[in-house]
């Protein structure tokens, strides 16, 4: 904090009040409710609820459906994270390397950041559409009868493609600014010490990018888990039946569409734990990075 | 205009670190005091306590007759020039100067008069409409000074104000600060780690080390009679030669070997003996040996233009010493030389405490 | 010196095409009429129904839902984006100011109360949040759309980081110049943070504009639909229709993309600075 601070009896509390009020009402209260209702079974007709202990949790964790959705979510998260990070890194390295047009490429590659996930989803659905989608013709050429929304694998494929496309710009922005933050003198020193461009990248540049990459790893995992909701929703169009969905989508389906508040809450709490662990990692890391900075 | 009195001022941080350990200084009205010492000696903390930016743990600070321990910085009637200038980046130079006066509710035309006057003195009148980022380092420095001057405060506080400037500009601004302070006659406290800046600016120097005052005095007195080995090595450049000596068969001898002859005026067993580089001269034909003679072997000659520094070792491999010699002198590495110094230029310090020995 | 190779440019051009291509095709297709699209698929050429389609999407009531025009949705999106951006900046600047510049009892406690919200995104507590908003009677209202989204510390975190990077001496100089907490905030800190405020506003505007799940749950009254929310409606109308209004759907998608994309492009340097520097 600052060397010199104000000491004022009431002002700091007044300044914090608006933020705290909103957080208490719209964060702590709902979070507490989620935890509470995860131990209750809600009457479907709205006549009160009964305490069922851990039953909601055992139901959820014991269900085959939940297990398969969890498996898909993990695979989806890993694929989206890996692909969007590696493609973005490739583009950032190239954009950093070219002497002419670097800022033009930067502009061209970053603006998709501003496209909303469901809009990206809509566009993706159209490109994979059975009537008008150009991708189908390409797939058909290779003998792939692509059926989005009907075939589990094909739908998952489309989701991954859309989610990666949407996330590349974000990663690109961070990788590029990470690369540009590497001092020129370090690059020059490495050029004198090492002949091979690939080795230089591997032994000097990549380690220096590691903090950025690790930060992005966490961000991308949370993105794949949560922010892809819009993409999933648009692709499966409320017909989750045979389609791949993510855990967050399941929370929404069970709670909002299915009316199973207890089960949905238990799932929420499980997800909270997952994010909690991820974020603790991130916090520890942020603190470290502040030290180095 | 005012006196500033520090009475056994201490600063203990929350973690228990004692940054300032009971410092007392009486600063006269109009005096230019320089607090000097290496980083971490507590000089900045002390200045910031005078400014009111740092709480005083125990002790008392008075500006004029008023105890200011609990007085807000804005009400202490002081002005401060910061190392990084701390100019308000979004305000024009004019507004940077005027901001403090506006906050005091001063009349517009009086503010205008003072800003114009300060701008005239500092020759920044042409930049009054510019923002700080459009100024060079030296100009920003002047604006920071201007912000202090317009206040017409009882005291100026300077926190290493020249350390962000290049060498040439630093010398120029140093002269200017001195001239300005002499004409305004405002009591000033100036913090620096640069001993040259300290020597040239100060009416009196306060040499600090580890939160304690090592010595207070006029620059030339501190230079002539350093109170400790710390002051001896900190003030003066190149630093004073310090040699470990002990009582020998006849007078004193080096602890690490032979080559030194000197009298033992205080009769003690061990000393740290100090001689400044400019007080050592070569024993040649026609130059009589003084109270101290020293045999040494030349290592390297370092010409700096107006003079040269001769580095030599004495007492076997023992210790390296520096001798200031005439700029066109020629020496070869390995050359054997004999040096001498007058009794008045030889300083004796306690071998354990480092304090000056005078009896 | 590193020589840029042809392959570098090829990779970058390929990347750019993959990023821009789909959006360009969607835009071009939106200028054709529905029958044409249905028959020939996506278009890479300029059609002659641009004015007609966009006019219809923007102004015709009942384009998709029977009650809401594109303009209405555009205005709602703007309200959500701008309202969220401003709300975020005001709340988080005040809170970060208290946390960084004041020493007060329970300061650390409040810090953690606020920053714990970074742990859990809205998505994981979406059901109970819906119930709370329902109990407060805030369904189908702008405040109900905006305020619950404000319950996170992202902005506060950004401003805290930024305030910490503001030189301490600025506050010290201001205090010697006689500025109290209010004066310092208004006269010095807010003007100093201008770029940061702009950057965070852009990020938050895009975030608010692009909200989907929350507005979808919150609003069933069509007068409160946003453009992004409207996407869902298009798809629901499609189910079972003979010749889907592809062109209108694409036009709506283009409208939903255009403002945030423009903002990000125009203020690119601020936006990137805000994004990459504040996330540290």
TrEMBL record, chain A:
CDD domains: TM_PBP2. It is found in: Cell inner membrane; Cell membrane. GO terms for biological process: transmembrane transport. It comes from the Bacteria. Residues 74-282 form the ABC transmembrane type-1 domain. The chain crosses the membrane at residues 12-29, 69-93, 105-128, 148-165, 201-223, 266-286. One of its GO terms (cellular component) is plasma membrane. The keyword Cell membrane applies. It is a multi-pass membrane protein. Keywords: Cell inner membrane, Cell membrane, Membrane, Transmembrane, Transmembrane helix, Transport. The complex is composed of two ATP-binding proteins (UgpC), two transmembrane proteins (UgpA and UgpE) and a solute-binding protein (UgpB). Belongs to the binding-protein-dependent transport system permease family. Part of the ABC transporter complex UgpBAEC involved in sn-glycerol-3-phosphate (G3P) import. Probably responsible for the translocation of the substrate across the membrane. This is sn-glycerol-3-phosphate transport system permease protein UgpA. It comes from Roseibium suaedae.
TrEMBL record, chain B:
It is found in: Cell inner membrane. One of its GO terms (biological process) is glycerophosphodiester transmembrane transport. It comes from Roseibium suaedae. It is a peripheral membrane protein. It holds the Pfam family TOBE_2. The lineage of its organism: Bacteria, Pseudomonadati, Pseudomonadota, Alphaproteobacteria, Hyphomicrobiales. SMART domains: AAA. It comes from the Bacteria. Residues 4-235 form the ABC transporter domain. GO terms for molecular function: ABC-type transporter activity; ATP binding; ATP hydrolysis activity. Belongs to the ABC transporter superfamily. Transmembrane segments: none annotated. This is Carbohydrate ABC transporter ATP-binding protein, CUT1 family. Keywords: ATP-binding, Cell inner membrane, Cell membrane, Membrane, Nucleotide-binding, Sugar transport, Translocase, Transport. Coiled coil: none annotated. The keyword Translocase applies.
From TrEMBL, chain C:
GO terms for cellular component: plasma membrane. It is a multi-pass membrane protein. It is found in: Cell inner membrane; Cell membrane. Signal peptide: none annotated. Residues 74-267 form the ABC transmembrane type-1 domain. It comes from the Bacteria. InterPro entries: MetI-like (IPR000515), MetI-like_sf (IPR035906). One of its GO terms (biological process) is transmembrane transport. PROSITE patterns: ABC_TM1. It holds the Pfam family BPD_transp_1. The complex is composed of two ATP-binding proteins (UgpC), two transmembrane proteins (UgpA and UgpE) and a solute-binding protein (UgpB). This is sn-glycerol-3-phosphate transport system permease protein UgpE. It comes from Roseibium suaedae.
């Amino acid at each position: 904090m600052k060397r010199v601070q104000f000491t004022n009896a009431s002002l700091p509390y007044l300044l914090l009040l608006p933020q705290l009020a909103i957080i208490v009402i719209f964060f702590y209260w709902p979070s507490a409710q989620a935890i509470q209702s995860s131990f209750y079974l809600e009457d479907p007709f709205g006549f009160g609820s009964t305490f069922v202990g851990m039953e909601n949790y055992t139901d959820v964790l014991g269900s085959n459906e939940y297990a398969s959705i969890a498996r898909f979510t993990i695979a989806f998260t890993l694929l989206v994270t890996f692909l969007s990070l590696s493609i973005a890194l490739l583009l950032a390295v190239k954009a950093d390397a070219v002497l002419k047009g670097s800022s033009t490429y930067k502009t061209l590659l970053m603006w998709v950041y501003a496209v909303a996930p469901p809009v990206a989803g809509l566009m993706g659905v159209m490109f994979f559409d059975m009537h008008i989608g150009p991708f189908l013709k390409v797939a058909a050429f290779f003998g792939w009868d692509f059926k989005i929304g009907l075939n589990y694998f094909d739908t998952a494929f489309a989701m991954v493609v859309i989610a990666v496309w949407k996330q590349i710009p974000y990663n690109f922005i961070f990788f590029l600014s990470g690369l540009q933050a590497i001092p020129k003198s370090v690059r020059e020193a490495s050029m004198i010490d090492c002949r091979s461009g690939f080795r230089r990248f591997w032994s000097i540049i990549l380690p220096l990018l590691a903090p950025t990459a690790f930060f992005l790893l966490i961000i991308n995992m949370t993105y794949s888990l949560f922010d892809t909701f819009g993409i999933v929703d648009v692709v499966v169009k409320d017909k989750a039946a045979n389609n791949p969905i993510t855990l967050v989508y399941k929370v929404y389906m069970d709670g909002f569409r299915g009316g199973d508040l207890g089960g949905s809450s238990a799932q929420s709490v499980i997800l909270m734990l997952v994010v909690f662990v991820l974020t603790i990692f991130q916090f520890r890391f942020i603190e470290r990075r502040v030290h180095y900075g | 205009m005012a006196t500033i009195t520090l009475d056994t001022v201490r600063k203990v941080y929350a973690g228990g670190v004692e940054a300032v350990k009971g410092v007392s200084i009486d600063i006269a009205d109009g005096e230019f005091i320089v607090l000097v010492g290496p980083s971490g000696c507590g000089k900045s903390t002390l200045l910031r306590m005078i400014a009111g930016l740092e709480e005083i743990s125990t002790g008392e600070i008075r500006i004029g007759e008023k105890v200011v321990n609990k007085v807000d910085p804005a009400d202490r009637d002081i002005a401060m020039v910061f190392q990084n200038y701390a100019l308000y980046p979004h305000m024009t130079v004019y507004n940077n100067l005027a901001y403090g006066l506006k906050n005091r509710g001063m009349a517009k035309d009086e503010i205008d008069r003072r800003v114009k006057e300060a701008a005239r003195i500092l020759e920044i009148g042409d930049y009054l409409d510019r923002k700080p980022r459009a100024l060079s380092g030296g100009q920003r420095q002047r604006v920071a000074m201007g912000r202090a001057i317009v206040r017409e405060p009882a005291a100026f506080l300077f926190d290493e104000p020249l350390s962000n400037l290049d060498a040439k500009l630093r010398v120029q601004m140093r002269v200017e600060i001195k001239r300005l302070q002499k004409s305004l006659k405002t009591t000033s406290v100036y913090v620096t780690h640069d001993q040259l800046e300290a020597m040239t600016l100060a009416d009196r120097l306060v040499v600090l080390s580890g939160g304690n005052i090592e010595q207070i005095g006029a620059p030339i007195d501190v230079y002539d009679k350093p109170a400790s080995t710390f002051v001896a090595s900190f003030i003066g450049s190149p630093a004073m030669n310090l040699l470990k000596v002990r009582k020998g068969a006849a007078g004193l001898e080096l602890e690490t070997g032979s080559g030194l002859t000197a009298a033992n005026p205080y009769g003690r067993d061990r000393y740290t003996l100090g001689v400044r580089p400019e007080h050592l001269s070569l024993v040649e034909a026609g130059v009589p040996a003084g109270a101290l003679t020293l045999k040494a072997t030349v290592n390297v000659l370092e010409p700096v233009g107006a003079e040269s520094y001769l580095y030599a070792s004495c007492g076997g491999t023992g210790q390296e010493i520096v001798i200031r010699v005439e700029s066109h002198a020629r020496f070869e590495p390995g050359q054997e030389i004999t040096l001498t110094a007058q009794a008045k230029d030889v300083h004796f310090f306690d071998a354990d405490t480092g304090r000056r020995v005078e009896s | 010196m590193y020589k840029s190779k042809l392959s570098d440019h090829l990779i970058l051009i390929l990347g750019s095409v993959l990023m821009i291509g789909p959006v360009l095709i969607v835009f071009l297709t939106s200028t054709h009429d529905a029958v044409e699209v249905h028959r020939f698929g996506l278009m890479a050429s300029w059609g002659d129904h641009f004015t007609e389609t966009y006019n219809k999407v923007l102004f015709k009531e009942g384009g998709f839902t029977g009650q809401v025009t594109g303009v209405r949705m555009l205005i709602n999106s703007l309200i959500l984006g701008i309202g969220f951006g401003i709300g975020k900046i005001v709340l988080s600047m005040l809170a970060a100011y208290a946390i960084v510049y004041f020493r007060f009892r329970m300061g650390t406690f409040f810090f953690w109360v606020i920053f714990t919200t970074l742990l859990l995104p809205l998505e994981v507590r979406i059901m109970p949040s819906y119930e709370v908003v329902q109990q407060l009677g805030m369904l189908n209202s702008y405040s109900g759309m905006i305020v619950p989204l404000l319950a996170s510390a992202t902005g506060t975190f950004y401003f805290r980081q930024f305030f910490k990077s503001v030189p301490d001496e600025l506050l010290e100089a201001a205090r010697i110049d006689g500025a109290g907490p209010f004066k310092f905030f208004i006269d010095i800190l807010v003007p100093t943070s201008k770029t940061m405020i702009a950057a965070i506003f852009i990020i938050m505007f895009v975030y608010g504009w692009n909200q989907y799940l929350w507005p979808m749950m919150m609003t069933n009254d069509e007068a409160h639909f946003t453009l992004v929310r409207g996407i869902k409606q298009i798809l629901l109308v499609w189910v079972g229709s003979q010749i889907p209004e592809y062109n209108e759907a694409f036009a709506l998608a283009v409208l939903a993309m255009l403002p945030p994309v423009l903002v990000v492009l125009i203020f690119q340097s601020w936006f990137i600075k805000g994004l990459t520097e504040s996330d540290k």
